């Protein structure tokens, strides 16, 4: 169960704009100071290279829809994006082939099971159910139109880079470590092929999916990527339109229902923001029309979500008035 101590944190309603820049800076620093010494959680070790992360790392970044950043702690440390890539690849593929085509093959409903569940695939006759679990993400990656495997990879890498506003590169050590241990994902790829949900070579698709998860980002990058969705698909730092406003809306809807795996309902109930986590310790949480939070802290809860990141997001959602469901009476 999601647990966070918010005693004494004032509740700010969602209605209206963000507070002043100086006040945001203060609250981001307060959130960092409040949770920096939290001892809970375990660093992921099922991918060997992730196990070497420093459990003390903790970075926070909030980027608003004007492109202004408010940061504290280790917001510039690079780590692998992991499952957070799923959200942005989903957006890129929807932009290319349309909402209906992706929905028909992948679905948008929560499985209620772990992100790498094979049972969820079998129970639903080969339907991945949603693009935020591994089966759905692999199927989504396969749908990116391309002339070759390398072309598909480059389209995904360059698209994620446009979301971040800078060129993203793969951490080769993490990629190789994952390729040595991703037998379950390879099995999921074959199962998708068997159910007719994958038109491409499953080994090649899983390889691309593993590469996209190994792209290096920072908490700042995640906040910029999330702020692009918050700003209707326009990167607030570069000014480039990355996806349409409709695709940004659809992506946020899926994140709200499925982004935090089997804890998505608890997350939405307590924090009230579309969000996505990754097993390297990253979280991106988006407040439409306002901006996005990027956090990085490697220790995870049993569902694979950063403990400190969740607590900091809860604090800032409440104190900045980001919760989608908290509104004040109109004057």
Fraction of residues in helices? 40-55%
Unreliable residue stretches: none
Shape category: globular
Q: What is the radius of gyration computed over CA atoms, rounded to a whole number of angstroms? A: 18 Å
What is the element string, with H for helices and E for strands? Answer: HEEEHHHHHHHHEHHHEEEH
Q: How many separate domains make up the residues?
A: 2
Biggest β-sheet: strands ordered side by side in the sheet: 2-1-7-6-5
Q: Write down the CATH class of the largest domain.
A: Alpha Beta
Separation, N- and C-terminal Cα atoms = 37 Å
Would you give an account of this structure?
This protein is α+β, with helices and mostly antiparallel strands and 331 residues long. It has 2 domains: 169 residues, Beta-lactamase (3-Layer(aba) Sandwich), CATH 3.40.710.10; 129 residues, DD-peptidase/beta-lactamase superfamily (Beta-lactamase). It is built from 13 helices and 7 strands. The strands form 2 sheets. It has a 5-stranded antiparallel β-sheet with strand order 2-1-7-6-5, with helices on both faces.
Quick structural overview:
The protein is an alpha+beta fold and 331 residues long.
Task: Compile the SSE list and pairings.
Blueprint: H1 21-35, E1 59-64, E2 69-73, E3 79-80, H2 85-97, H3 99-106, H4 119-123, H5 134-142, H6 149-164, H7 172-179, H8 183-194, H9 202-213, E4 216-217, H10 219-230, H11 245-258, H12 264-270, E5 275-277, E6 282-287, E7 291-296, H13 307-320
Antiparallel strand pairs: 1-2, 1-7, 3-4, 5-6, 6-7
Helix pairs in contact: 1-13, 2-3, 2-5, 2-6, 2-11, 5-8, 5-9, 6-9, 6-10, 7-9, 8-9
């Amino acid at each position: 169960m999601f647990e966070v101590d918010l005693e004494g944190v004032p509740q700010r309603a969602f209605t209206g704009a963000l507070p002043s820049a100086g006040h945001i800076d203060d609250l981001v620093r307060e959130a960092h100071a409040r949770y920096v010494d939290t001892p809970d959680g375990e660093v992921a070790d099922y991918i060997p290279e992730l196990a070497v992360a420093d459990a003390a790392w903790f970075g926070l970044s909030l980027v608003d829809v004007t492109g202004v950043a408010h940061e504290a702690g280790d917001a510039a440390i690079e780590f692998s994006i992991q499952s957070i890539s799923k959200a942005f690849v989903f957006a890129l593929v929807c932009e290319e082939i349309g909402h209906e085509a992706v929905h028909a093959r992948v679905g948008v409903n929560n499985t209620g099971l772990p992100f790498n569940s094979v049972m969820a695939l079998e129970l639903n006759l080969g339907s991945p159910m949603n693009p935020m679990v591994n089966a759905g993400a692999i199927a989504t990656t396969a749908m990116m139109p391309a002339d070759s495997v390398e072309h598909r990879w480059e389209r995904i890498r360059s698209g994620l880079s446009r979301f971040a506003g800078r060129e993203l590169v793969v951490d080769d050590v993490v990629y190789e470590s994952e390729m040595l241990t991703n037998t379950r994902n390879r099995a999921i790829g074959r199962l998708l092929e068997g159910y007719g949900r994958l038109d491409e070579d499953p080994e090649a698709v899983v390889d691309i999916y593993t590469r996209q998860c190994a792209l290096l980002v920072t908490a700042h990058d995640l906040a910029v990527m999330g702020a692009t969705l918050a700003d209707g698909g326009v990167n607030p730092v570069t000014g480039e339109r990355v996806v349409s406003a409709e695709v940004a809306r659809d992506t946020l809807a899926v994140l709200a229902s499925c982004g935090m795996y089997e804890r998505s309902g608890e997350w939405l109930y307590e924090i009230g923001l579309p969000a996505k986590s990754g097993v390297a310790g990253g979280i991106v949480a988006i407040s439409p029309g306002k901006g996005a939070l990027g956090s990085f802290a490697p220790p995870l809860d049993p569902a694979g979500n950063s403990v400190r990141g969740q607590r900091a997001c809860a604090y800032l959602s409440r104190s900045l008035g980001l919760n989608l469901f908290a509104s004040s009476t109109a004057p």
